[in-house]
Amino acid sequence: MKWLKLGIFFLILFIFFYLRLTPIINQTVPYTFDQGRDFLKAEEIIRDKNFTFIGPTTGIQGVHHGAWWYYLLSLFYLIFNGWPVGFYVGLFAFSTVVLFWFFFFVKKELGHQSSLLFLLPVAAGSFFVRLGFFASNNTLSPLFVLLFIYSVYQFFKNQSSKYLFFMSLSLGFIFEFEVAFGIFIITSFFIASLFFKLFRKSYLNLKRLALFLTGFVAPIFPRLLFELKNNFIQTKAFLNFYAHPTSTNKLSLLSTLTERAQLFIKYYFQLIPQENLYLGIFVFLFFIYLLIIGMKNIKRDKLDPLLFFSLLISIIFLVSLVSRNNFFWDYYLDGVQFIILFILILIFSLNNKLKLLKNSFLGILFFYIIASFLMNQSYKNVPLIGLRADNKIVNYFIEKTNNKYYCLKIYTPPVIPYTYYYLFSYYANHQKLKYPRQEFTNNQCYFIFDKEPYVFRVEKWRKENIPQNALLDKTIRYKNGTSIELWRIFNPNMP
């Protein structure tokens, strides 16, 4: 039995690492406008000592996420000397440490079976997998939800003031890494906490309240400095947005309710292997059964956390209804998945007399994950996407320009080609490649055209950037739709 458990554990570990490391090794990780912009900012912080108190922009004009994302990237930049893949390796390492720390916490507090219930969906679920290599500020927010869950659980168990500090610290970081989710979860947490005497007593205790506020202020301190320096510009922008939302079509309450319900159902199914409908229904009914059986002899140390997190999820859902614009990105509430999963784990641990039934359930999930993993493996060529695609383009210039000055102009659909800018900057510093110029050099210039569904935009850009007396000399097309063109001016005196 011991060897069987070890075998299952290492198979899950293999899937966990394979699904996260394969995109990093193949460099098929997402690499878009946002990643290029953020990597350039990290380079600016390290190289130019140009520090900042705010981070990337949010969906609200004038409001930014926190600066911690840039400083985490700056740490990765230092460790890997600016290597583009290094940012993804660093993120993978950070997320893996957090996830396994929480795994061992669950194992210690709730048992081996409960820890496997945490690890199984986390190992193979698409939402959880992308936390390991999607280099974006909002992927850090769910990881701090785990610190929040840990702190709340321990606070109910031990009632120690230090967990109040970690609780508010985690809420502050959630807010800084994803402002939208921060607003929703902080508001919901405060409302939910008022239903519990332990929290109400803590708020009335000045020492505990001060510790709680200190934990929250620490992560947002750079933002506070920015606000003080700039006459509370972000606060005013947010209040203005709240008073006068963007000019999108406002949804009815019923439409908003339906949309949010579908979103929360989606969050639940992201815990299910391959998001299978029938398996999802089976899991839901199984946990309803466990809850009915387990509630008979439930202990206080498990009842309070279960009630708290269940109430918290319900309030987050209700608070989200306040936002009734016709856009509501899924990642605004990313992290809810971990709360739902922990609720299931708490229900799973209620009754210790159903080991055979629980093992059978875990076996079903395990074999389904293994079967799905094997069915989805193929030996096709590595696709030319993400960082791999842009790296291939830049390597063309490393080979062709032979460390000489050259002209290059770039068209990408978001207009500002941050992705290429960072790669050219990195290779100019670490390989035999000059940073490109914008002016025609030796009567010629290269042009990069990323795939653009709206042809008229490309044509307009061509007219504005290619001289009338230039002639197309060469075109190279890539499978991902990107092309490189070489334009020459054969007669410079021609108008």
UniProtKB/TrEMBL annotation:
Q: What are the record keywords, sorted? A: Membrane, Transmembrane, Transmembrane helix
Transmembrane stretches, start-end: 85-104, 116-133, 139-156, 163-196, 208-226, 277-294, 306-323, 329-349, 356-375
Domain of life of the source? Bacteria
* The protein's name: Glycosyltransferase RgtA/B/C/D-like domain-containing protein
Organism for this UniProt entry:
Candidatus Roizmanbacteria bacterium GW2011_GWC2_37_13
